[in-house]
Specification:
about 290 residues; Rossmann fold; about 15% strand; homodimer; 2 domains
Chain lengths: ~290, ~290
Amino acid sequence: MAVLFHRLVIVGVGLIGGSLGLAARARGLVEEIVGFGRTEANLRVALERGIIDRYTFDPAEAARGTDLLLLAVPVAAMQQVTAQFVPFLPPGCVVTDAGSVKEAVVRTMEAFLPPTLPFVGAHPIAGTEQAGAAAAFATLFEGRLCLLTPTPRTDPQALARVRALWEGVGMRVEEMEAATHDYVLARVSHLPHLIAFSLMNATRAAARDGLDLLVYAGSAFADMTRVAASPLEMWRDIFLSNREALLNALADFEQALAQLKTGVERGDVEILTAAIEQARSERYRFVRLRERT
Amino acid sequence: MAVLFHRLVIVGVGLIGGSLGLAARARGLVEEIVGFGRTEANLRVALERGIIDRYTFDPAEAARGTDLLLLAVPVAAMQQVTAQFVPFLPPGCVVTDAGSVKEAVVRTMEAFLPPTLPFVGAHPIAGTEQAGAAAAFATLFEGRLCLLTPTPRTDPQALARVRALWEGVGMRVEEMEAATHDYVLARVSHLPHLIAFSLMNATRAAARDGLDLLVYAGSAFADMTRVAASPLEMWRDIFLSNREALLNALADFEQALAQLKTGVERGDVEILTAAIEQARSERYRFVRLRERT
């Protein structure tokens, strides 16, 4: 595949940033990769694993000659982190992100970046509950979906190049309004994470008589709480940055929960049957959808 | 391993019943296995897969010469299903179950069975969201936990033989009060299933503008809704039979959910940090627990 960018700076060489580094290098999409982050231990892991060619803590050095700046940091930190690079980035350098919330990020970055630095909002929908460069792997993105959220202000050429990058590492790429993205992700990702944290906390609260409930948990519980191990800052920021859509999603969940609760309280076979059957048929539809892609 | 039972009748040759058949045969724990159920197509699958030696729809024929009757049917159906066999079962035949609710089942069966038919309440904590003989596999129980819920009325010899059976197929076996079992399982299994059904239904309710949310769901959503495909009757019965414990567990979950909701509503970093950190540390503890067993 042709080289898309000469020098990629990954800000935040974690699961997403690190996996992109591995994948982009393996496919020959970038010539050089520079790591930037807060924790030297993590950057050393990234260097040892061949994710990056070098790392630096100097924004000016990182910015020099860069034509792609990837922000793979918690969404609330993006503006502050980017501010360090802006004075040093060459005109035309594409700035993009991998955040799970798009409206707040795109609005902030478009208002903040000079017109010489085109911004493209992106969200590769891939990940695990793991964090850090040690958890990165080159195949993370293969066959998965990446949503780009351009606006009327988005530079078409920058958009095309960011699309080519994510397609280059094996993703299917779709464009979507940032607000729609946030509506959708609130429901299929942010709410499920909030539920997983809550379920884990509810179990902790229920410990009694020296009985450790977790000893008796099976695979259903294990799967449903897997993402409760996800990084704190990342998820705190997502919850705060997608507040309205998340609260709406939560309200719908509470309503669905109340339906089943009513069925249990009243011992109402019909209510329970209807709710469970609807859930089962949706789940089967979901499994078929995934099998097709 | 020594033969524990000469003739095992499996009532309900589904995932649990069928897997026990495969595992017990592979380990030489039973000499003959007879299938009994509602659906001939499923019993034929069981026969073809070598789970059972034969099947019958005649309770008298099934009961003849049987020394273990395994009830692997939805909990609300157990009494009615067992009633067909009682007139024909030889004295001393052990009756046991594999239900996920124990207090209601044990109470019902002890009141219902004659003293000549010892009952042992059991719950092998293993399973997938799949159902039917086609989904059964011999290794399902290996390394997993089986809870037995004897009462003062339980025949010690029958208890020992049922313990030997589940240990024989690779399970760790613990004894527990039926009420404690139901308290624990409400929290680590029944509540998570109820949540999975609700999450699936909430997503369905949220479809808008021809947008199919499920297309955008990633692995978090996939894992959290896996068990929403679980069998209707089984879970309807569990919810109804473990009503009180489930409602208590649900109340604790609603409280944990409300904590995170408050954090989001108020944009309160401290509340969110505390709730997410607590969930993360519990999840890590759970992962360590599972690695040890």
